[in-house]
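Structure ticket #2291
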Amino acid sequence: MTTTKGAPRRPAGRRGKVRKEFWLDPKALRRAQTLLGTATERETVERALDIVAFRAEVREGVAALAGLELDRRA
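Resolution: structure written out below.
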């Protein structure tokens, strides 16, 4: 597949993604895969990255709520 300018076009499932190659500890990867219940190694890494981002969002939310006074009548 190519575009009119000759640049390769990515299949729909790969759009917005980049290819990376790195070494991972196979035991850590299998453990994460088991804990996350994912079917593939790629899904495991993607889910783990999503969880890290979500964790940061939760921390930001907790920090924002920390300064609020709660209405104890509710």
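Closing remark: The two ends are 60 Å apart (CA to CA).
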